[in-house]
Amino acid sequence: MEMLMQVVVAFVATVSFAVLFQVPKEQYLYSGICGAVGWLCYLLVMNSYPSPTVSSFAAVVALTLMARIFAVRRKTPVTVFLICGLFPLVPGAGIYYTAYNFIMGYNDLAVAKGIETIKIAVAIALAIVCTFSLPAPVLGKLSGVRKKL
Amino acid sequence: MLLIGKAQEGNGLEKSREVLELTTRIGEVLLKNGGEIFRVQQTMQMIAKAYGIKNFHVYVLANGIFVSIEENGYEMRKQIQTESPELEIASQIRYVPLSSVHLGRVAAVNNLSREIVAQKYTVAQAWERIEQIEKIPFTSNALQVLFSGLGSGSFCYLLGGSLIDSAASFLSGMLLWCFVLFISNRKANKIMVNILSSALVTLTGILFYLFLFGENMDKIIIGSIIPLLPGVPLTNSIRDFLNGDYLSGTIRMIDAVLVACCIALGVGVVLRIFPVITGITI
Known about the structure:
heterodimer; A: mainly alpha; 0% strand; B: 3-stranded antiparallel beta sheet; 11 helices; 8% strand; disordered N terminus
């Protein structure tokens, strides 16, 4: 139940950013779905293997895959879905805690948080790279459209 | 209007120039509104090809476009071998400063280029379309403010804040976007905008926590800085690297890191100074 609520909120959050980044209205629903799927995946992995880095990686892979599928099916640039969906996973909390600990003089904690933030950012980058490296025909099959990207 | 094709070889350069200007304009709109380098480059090449331009060269950077076309260039002279016709070159350069993202325009240009490739538009009609696309408005300020708040509130909840925290974050997210809109209209530079606005939300976060409502100060502040986060440059930078555009990827990566540092700075300074000035420990 808690998880369902979280996924719904992730959907709302993603749609909010879709509005802020001027995504066309007819794509709101789909970018929201991308964000919700990403967050669901994050929660599921977090439950069984509580590491933010690994969870972020898995979530971004799922999210990017969804974004690419929607891009093919809806003939819209993949950025439209990817950017908004990625927002819940960008390590905003990491930036905050790094700054907080650094300023408060807790240098050990600041370094630890800073490194964790960088790790998450790298995991996100890696996940995007991996998913985009899937060749277009594979994706065409996944999305049920037989056409080049 | 005539379609530019292989048919008109007479005043080739004149026609080619029109196409050159059109593609440059389209590339400019795409790049300015947050398209990836690879997309800009590919779109421009496809459009030029659709209008029958053969020697079309384009180089796109995160903030610049360089295009040139040749008529009777090297290839041509090699083929004819006899009297070489005059070599004619036309080129365009555009400086495209980093600016605010409008994904709706990116999607619209994408459709336009698909239609041009399907030979649905003459050059003049395509010009009309691209000017229309450039004028697609941003959503109204009120809506932007509302959704900034909504985004902040939801993030606060996602990151473990209570409902009360989310309410505080919602309000402070709305305030944040009002401030961003206000200050952006006054041409303040991006670094100061980020430092000042993250400082502002940190301050409101502290005030909410101390005097109004809210249970976790950190969650409130994290929620409300989310709209400032460099999600777009980060994503674009990764994709540029992936496509081998290392220089543009680096430019955008620096943008992302700089924004993140500015946010951290704004938050940190307020957290540090507030207790000193007011004597209240947080």
